[in-house]
Every structure is written in structure tokens, then in C-alpha cells.
Amino acid sequence: MSTPTSTERTPRRLVVVQAGVGQPSSTRLLAERLATSTADALLERGEDTQVEFVDLRLHVHALADAMLTGFASGDLAEAVEAVRAADAVIVATPVYQASYSGLFKTFVDILDEGSLKGTPVLLAATAGTARHSLVLEHAMRPLFAHLKAVTVPTAVFAASEDWGAGGLDHGLAARTGVAARELADLVAGAGPSRRAPGRLDGELADPVPFEQLLAG
């Protein structure tokens, strides 16, 4: 029996969540570069890719409604489901007040528990200065560790100077390529048990509700 070629396989679903609000947006541009590099890296590993973008600027009002009502609807619900069903996720946010944006965090807050459990995730951020680059490690990586996502070792930060010819051709391109290959390795090596139900070894038990504690 012959081995199926990449074109005969179900494409890997790559969902890109980006929180840029400008038009054009450096965050969107970075997300696009990462998505293209990841798709290329997966193709080298014999995997086709279906890329879907979730532009959070289009869901601002729906996100506010979801925070008030407790559930997402319409296009936002479809975006949440896309993240849940993704084989891999790229997340990119602008840096505000030395951390991820409120728009980005609001989307993360409405995700169902376990939506990203075991999902390979590539972290990315943009800002006007490289002084904010540690936001990837002190804010974003702990957030996605809490969500039990599998973050790739290389996170990608782009400052204003990275969009010049020198930055694009050297530093940013190199970081993008490394991170994309790491994400592709995780996706290509992920089996069907990636999201097997049940508690992970060493995972803490669910907390007892406060009302139950008060009731004795």
C-alpha cells in the first residue's frame, strides 16, 4: 500500500489570533509573516496547512457583550470554535502598559476552559521599542502555561526598528524562521492523543467552590 502524499491528507488547521487595531497594523504584519513561515515549514514536513485569521479588532463589541452575558455569539463564537479546533495557534498582540493588550486578554478570558490544552502555540508581540520584548516571557508565556498550551521555545518580538530593511532581512526574519520551524515540528509530531481527556500527571485537582466551603 502506498503512503498518502501531503495533498491526500487533511490540512493542518493553523489559527492566527492578532490584536492589532491599526490599519495597517504591525501586529497583523508580524502575524502574517509567522503564518507564512509556519505554512512553509509544515510543507517541508509533508503537511498542508489551512490558515485562518482572527482579527480581534472586528470583534470588539461582541467581546464586550460576551463578558457581560457569559457566552460568545455569531462570528465571535465561530472564532472561539476555530481556536478550540486548531492544530496550532499563533497569537500576536501589541504591547500596552508593559503587557498584552486588554483586547487580547478579553478574548483569552472568554475561551472555554481547556480550549488550548495541549495545543502548540507560538507567541508574538509588537511595540515601538525593544525595551518591551520581555513581555513575551513575563506576561504571555505564564498566561499560556496556565491555559496548558504547549508554547514553542522561541517567541517573536518586533520593535519599530525591525521593520526597516536591515531588521527584516536579518534579525526579524531569523527569529521568525526559527519559531516557525519549532511550531511546525510540534504540529507534525502531534498525534491524535494530543488532547486526550483526563487530568495530566501532576495536575492539581479542581478547587472546591467557595460556597461549598462556607456551607461546611
UniProtKB/TrEMBL annotation:
SUPFAM superfamilies: Flavoproteins. Keywords: Flavoprotein, FMN, Oxidoreductase. InterPro entries: CE1759_FMN_reduct (IPR023932), Flavoprotein-like_sf (IPR029039), FMN_Rdtase-like_dom (IPR005025), NAD(P)H-dep_FMN_reductase (IPR051814). Residues 14-163 form the NADPH-dependent FMN reductase-like domain. PANTHER family: FMN REDUCTASE (NADPH) (PTHR43408:SF2). This is NAD(P)H-dependent oxidoreductase. It comes from Pedococcus ginsenosidimutans.
